[in-house]
Design goal:
The strands form 3 sheets. Strands 1-2-3-4 form a 4-stranded antiparallel β-sheet, covered by helices on one side. A 3-stranded antiparallel β-sheet has the order 5-6-7. Strands 8-9 form a two-stranded antiparallel ribbon. The protein has 2 domains: 103 residues, Homing Intron 3 (I-Ppo) Encoded Endonuclease, Chain A (Alpha-Beta Complex), CATH 3.90.75.20; 46 residues, Arc Repressor Mutant, subunit A. The longest helix is centred in the last third of the chain and has 12 residues. The chain contains 6 helices and 9 strands, in the order βββββββααββαααα. The protein has 169 residues and is α+β, with helices and mostly antiparallel strands.
């Protein structure tokens, strides 16, 4: 993508470029602003207007400046296509919604499914065993629950694929 620097809408003294850098042009002096990370690891910058300081996310500034057409598709979220929060290049950012963001995460291997999820009580092997006992051996869910010492609701969710859909037997 071509390098372009463009004025940030509603901040006449500030510019952002296609690489995700933010610039100040106060008093005729060009200065690249330092970015800091918020609690979630997203770069942000402090801009001043009429004596008030605004803390803004850099990825939103880039997309709102170069792609202001979010209302065309009614999107309200800025997606990092490669899921790297500090990569604010314009060609890595896009308007989207939560579903699109989750699909990006899954495509990039960032989605914590199954055993990767920190709150998971089951393993892939246990899920396969549950499905095998239910479908092949025709065991009742209550019997599987007692045998494996797993709550009946968890067994039901696995069998009806409310959870662990990605594990097949």
């Amino acid at each position: 993508m071509r390098y372009i620097k463009k004025q940030i809408p509603s901040f006449k003294d500030y510019y952002v470029d296609t690489n995700g850098s933010v610039w100040s042009y106060k008093h005729g002096v060009e200065k690249e602003l330092k970015l800091c990370l918020d609690k979630k690891g997203y770069p942000q910058v402090h801009l001043r207007k009429l004596g008030k300081t605004y803390t803004l996310k850099v990825h939103r500034l880039v997309v709102e400046t170069f792609c202001p057409d979010k209302r065309v598709h009614n999107y309200d979220l800025v997606r990092h296509l490669n899921d790297i929060r500090t990569d604010n290049r314009l060609d890595n950012l896009a308007w989207g919604n939560q579903k699109m963001n989750m699909l990006d995460a899954r495509r990039n291997g960032k989605h914590n499914r199954g055993e990767k999820n920190g709150s998971s009580k089951l393993t892939s092997d246990r899920v396969k065993l549950i499905k095998r006992l239910y479908y092949e051996f025709k065991w009742k869910q209550s019997k599987i629950s007692r045998l494996l010492v797993i709550h009946a609701t968890t067994i039901n969710n696995v069998i009806h694929e409310n959870t662990w859909k990605h594990i097949k037997i």
